[in-house]
Design a protein that fits this description.
By secondary structure, the protein is of the alpha+beta class. The chain is built from 15 helices and 16 strands. The protein starts with 9 loop residues before the first helix and ends in a 17-residue tail after the last helix.
């Protein structure tokens, strides 16, 4: 087991590169859901990879924990450390350089502190698209997106952050730098440290820059909202759409009626094309030149209605209407926040198990507590956001003594159906116990061995992903 860590104090501050320290303000100690109150002895904001390496070397010598922070938008507590000796927070806010873009190669190299929106804007300026898309993209940093292997609404077509990364530059726990910012699509030269660092949540190194894949934007884009009678019908509709569009389905989002009700209650200014739908899907397609997307969606709507898969639908007639549809979808989490969730779950399931999960989980939860469920998410890749809310007239605090039990039940049902209790937000600190409970023993042993080999002092994001005792 790693030795006990020391707090980040003035003796460490004296060993850091000049000009990297920042005041310890509340902004560095918060996470969006307010489940954890972070702490920090020092905050360092390096300006370069060399300064990151110097900070890490100083922390290793002093045995001080490091919590790397990007945009701070993570939802599982990986960016804050509430317990133990006060760590150094390593903020990448000053590393926002676009190091290069090669449109002819469809490659861009960005430093880890660039926001996802800034990366998308840089690609767009060259007539390209960086397809990773999140509601928090104006704040989320690309380093954090990679560290958590973010998914988002376009993973159905383009994959998660991992699939969009060609190479990584990173600082390892001893302060050495991995220079692997290759722009290659094929490179079979041994262990893939890129894939190890992506999704590791800063527990084995600090990502400082990345080579990212770009794509040409589809010439014809269409968006529709379609009312479906059930999740089963939505899944059959997905198969029908993929069969007709030949790889052109970019996003396929499931929206439950509870989410629409929350929007109507908390954000009534948001226009809803299908306000009474118990279940609906938001579909985006991107098709080649000569294949009108609106016409393809109209044909899909007709065929789906004939098969009883769709009961109503609206196809966007303009770019603004398409943006309005996405505005609705992207504000479901904000409406959730205003209602106040008992517990939120980011799960994934094999597609054929989704409808059964929704049925079984709803029945099991109803037998245990009076509550409401808002189920929505990225149906195309099997990722559901399955969130629990108080019954009308009750407050979420009334369920505090039941929250862990109810979350355990949701995760247990998902795992029993071959699913995962963490689809795209990672483990952080929130789900460390879940990983120990349901993780494959051999895989966990290998993870612990890797952690011990690369980070023998246990200074990298202590207590995240793997518990300190296990790490």
């Amino acid at each position: 087991m790693p030795a006990d860590l020391n707090p980040a104090d003035e003796s460490l501050a004296a060993r850091l590169p000049a000009g990297v320290l920042r005041p310890v303000t509340p902004a560095y100690l918060e996470e969006p859901r307010g489940r954890y109150a972070g702490q920090a002895g020092l905050v360092a904001a390096p300006r370069s990879t060399e300064e990151v390496a110097a900070v890490v070397r100083a922390c290793a010598a002093a045995r001080v924990g490091i919590v790397t922070r990007g945009g701070g938008t993570g939802l599982v507590g990986g960016q804050v450390m509430p317990e133990g000796p006060a760590p150094l927070i390593l903020s990448l806010e000053r590393m926002q350089t676009l190091r290069g873009i090669w449109p002819e190669e469809n490659v861009l190299i960005a430093e880890a502190g660039m926001t996802l929106q800034a990366v998308r804007d840089a690609a767009e300026a060259e007539g390209r698209l960086f397809p990773l898309s999140l509601a928090s993209q104006g704040t989320a940093a690309i380093g954090g997106c990679l560290a958590t292997n973010a998914g988002g609404v376009t993973a159905l077509r383009y994959g998660t952050a991992r699939a969009l990364c060609l190479g990584i530059e990173a600082v390892l726990p001893d302060g050495s730098v991995v220079h692997d910012l290759k722009r290659l699509r094929k490179d079979n030269t041994g262990y893939d440290l890129r894939d190890l660092l992506i999704g590791a949540e800063g527990s084995v190194g600090v990502i400082t820059a990345a080579s990212l894949k770009l794509v040409l934007p589809p010439p014809n884009v269409g968006v529709a909202m379609l009312e479906v009678p059930s999740p089963e019908a939505a899944l059959t509709l997905l198969a029908l759409a993929e069969g007709r569009m030949a790889g052109g389905v970019t996003a396929f989002e499931l929206i439950g009626g509870t989410g629409l009700a929350f929007l109507a209650e908390k954000l009534p200014e948001i226009r809803q094309p299908l306000p009474k739908a118990a279940w609906s899907v938001l579909v985006e397609v991107g098709l080649p030149q000569g294949l009108p997307a609106a016409e393809a969606l109209e044909n899909l709507l007709v065929a789906a209605m004939e098969e009883g898969l769709v009961t109503d639908g609206v196809i966007a007639q303009s770019g603004q209407q398409a943006a309005d549809f996405w505005h609705l979808r992207e504000h479901i989490p904000e409406a959730n926040k205003r209602v106040g969730a008992i517990a939120s779950h980011d799960i994934s399931l094999p597609l054929s198990e989704i409808a059964g999960f929704i049925r079984d989980a709803g029945r099991e939860l109803a037998a245990r507590a009076e509550l409401r469920v808002n189920c929505f998410g990225h149906l195309g890749d099997g990722n559901l956001h399955y969130n629990l809310f108080p019954a009308p007239g009750r407050h979420r605090s009334e369920y505090d003594d039941r929250r862990k039990e109810l979350s355990h039940l949701v995760h247990e049902i998902a795992v029993a159906r071959g699913g995962s209790f963490s689809a795209e937000h990672g483990i952080g600190r929130l789900k460390v116990g879940d990983l120990e409970r349901w993780g494959d023993p051999a895989r966990l042993a290998a993870m612990r061995a890797i952690k011990a080999a690369l980070d023998p002092l246990g200074i990298m994001n202590p207590g995240a992903v793997l518990s300190r005792a296990a790490g």
